[in-house]
Amino acid sequence: MTVSFALHGVGVSSGIAIGRAQLVSHATREVAHYTIPKSQVESEIARFESAVAEVQHELEGLHTALTSGDVPGEFGAFLDVHWMILNDPTLSEAPKRIIVEQRCNAEWALTLQMNVLVEQFDQIEDPYLRERKADVVQVGERVLKRLMGRPGTLPSPSAEEQTILVAHDLSPADVIQFKHHHFAAFLTDLGGATSHTAIVARSLNVPAVVATHNARQLIREGEMLIVDGGRHVVIVNPDRSVLGEYRLRQDELELARQKLRRLRSKRAETLDGVRVELEANIELPEDIDQANANGAAGVGLFRSEFLFLNRNDLPSEDEQFEAYRKVAEGMQGKPVTIRTFDLGADKQPHEFELTRVAPNPALGLRAVRFCLAEPRLFQTQLRAILRASHYGNVRILIPMLASVSEIDQTFAMIERAKATLAEQGVPFRPDTKIGGMIEIPAAVLSIGAFLRKLDFLSIGTNDLIQYTLAVDRADEAVSHLYDPLHPAVLKLIGLAIGSATKAGRPIAVCGEMAGEQELTRLLLGLGLREFSMHPSQLLTVKHRVLQTNIAAGASIVDRIRRVDDPERLKALLERLNALA
Ligand code: PEP
Ligand code: MG
């Protein structure tokens, strides 16, 4: 007999999905496990061999750097040990046997073998040798990551049965891979509502629930699930009456979606005649199809760092240029805001993984700090963006600015990129607009200086909330403290919008708050006229804009601005949203 039960989490993408569980997991802890057909065994072995060869190559490169003095000397012994472990048949050969015997994917075969080795190390009495277990795990994980960079063929969900991914934790890089697989829904044990994992899950355009705590442990492969993203709930093994009820609700939601589609080419204007720009957030160039299909007025945020993930090399200038040009041309003259890469913290390219583990990654070398610390990488990207500016209405957006000196340094880098392009006779738009993201309280509190230097601003509320409340956006243990409606957060947003408007500079919100229809009226009341969100949210927010009279809600918004009590604030917001 199957037992029916419900799990609660944080719904990060609404909608209802009904399907069978497929367990997948993060590369470093647990890995995807699937059976491969006999015909795929050889190519799976080849995939494993090339991952091992790539790590060998990587270690050789480090050895060369060592001899040229680029890497500290103590690295030498460590590299030798890793080299020996990698070339030992217990790591480089045994997994191939497992692939053949168990007909499983290479990641799983390697993980099984690593478990065997770890157990053997645990039984060693000599403490020095026992310590080498960590090296085995590191080498194994290095190979695993290479395998993840070149994923095998995931099992395709069967046509008649929808598949729902169940994972303990997934990095944004893991999730972006699922864009090309059509899963019905998505749930993870860990993750906060605005973690990058959740944002990418949302962009898959399927219902998703994160922070379910132990779904991965409780749910068995193939069990029937209902994922209700809007109500933050997952129902495992539902009985027939519950299934019937949810099928009905699914149909109702589909009908509502179809109705919304009629708004696609309607102007976004409030009842009192205020024009609003509703733009799209994208992660990959192909996302513009969805942006255009939902009537986006432009791209308000292109998270360009996703071009750098899930690969073992870095994208060249030409490759980046092609990606940016595709978006610029595809948006046909509408603004395309390319954020320079926001790497670091939870989005680490393979190339930089050997560097130290940051003690506090969200406060570490991330976004513009990382760009300025890696000038060659930054130059390459800036040149590629500027080249694309010749083919559309491109704007450059700098993430996570905290101080004016970062703006000055970035400007110097942009000037250098322009100079080299001009020297080489490569066309670009010299007056390409440069904007900055407002994501750190310090940036709001010194916004005057930012406004004097930058052409436009965009508030990244996901990070602004994280840094204002000191709540890690990716940590489900503190997700109950992550509050977009905290009075301090609203004060900062109001201050930023007010200051930019007064200075005549465009300002947008491109964090997740922009796509929350319960917040549309409040943001309009605070003076916001430019919203950028995931394409799937555009029509719902447009519908809300069309129903809003900003003047009628002005006095309530005024009180919201002044109130300090969170409960009172929420009650006022309800009143604002209930206005006819
Ligand atoms: C934000 O912080 O709100 C934002 C839009 O950037 P990201 O979510 O990519 O950090
Ligand atoms: Mg951000």
Each distinct ligand: phosphoenolpyruvate, magnesium ion
Structural class designation: alpha/beta
Separate helix tally: 24
pLDDT < 50 runs, ≥5 residues: none
The general outline is globular
Number of strands: 16
> Mind summarizing the main beta sheet?
8 strands, mixed
Termini separation comes to 50 Å
| Percent of residues in helices | 40-55%
DSSP strand (E) fraction?
A: 5-15%
Mean pLDDT figure: 88
Order of strands across the main sheet: 1-8-7-3-4-5-6-2
Radius of gyration: 25 Å
Write a structural description.
- The protein is an alpha/beta fold and 580 residues long.
- The protein has 24 helices and 16 strands.
- The strands form two sheets. It has an eight-stranded mixed β-sheet. An eight-stranded parallel β-sheet has the order 15-14-13-12-11-10-9-16.
- The longest helix is centred in the first third of the chain and has 27 residues.
- The protein is globular, with a radius of gyration of 25 Å.
- The mean pLDDT is 88.
- The site of phosphoenolpyruvate has 11 residues, from strand 10 and helix 19.
What's the arrangement of secondary structure elements?
Layout: E1 5-8, E2 10-13, E3 16-23, H1 41-67, H2 75-87, H3 89-92, H4 94-102, H5 106-122, H6 127-131, H7 133-149, E4 163-167, H8 172-177, E5 185-188, H9 196-203, E6 208-210, H10 215-218, E7 224-228, E8 233-236, H11 240-261, E9 277-282, H12 288-293, E10 299-303, H13 317-330, E11 335-339, H14 367-373, H15 375-389, E12 393-398, H16 404-423, E13 433-438, H17 441-445, H18 447-453, E14 456-459, H19 461-469, H20 487-502, E15 507-509, H21 520-525, E16 530-533, H22 538-546, H23 550-562, H24 566-578
Parallel strand pairs: 3-4, 4-5, 5-6, 9-10, 9-16, 10-11, 11-12, 12-13, 13-14, 14-15
Antiparallel strand pairs: 1-8, 2-6, 3-7, 7-8
Helix pairs in contact: 1-2, 1-4, 1-7, 2-7, 4-5, 5-7, 13-15, 15-16, 23-24
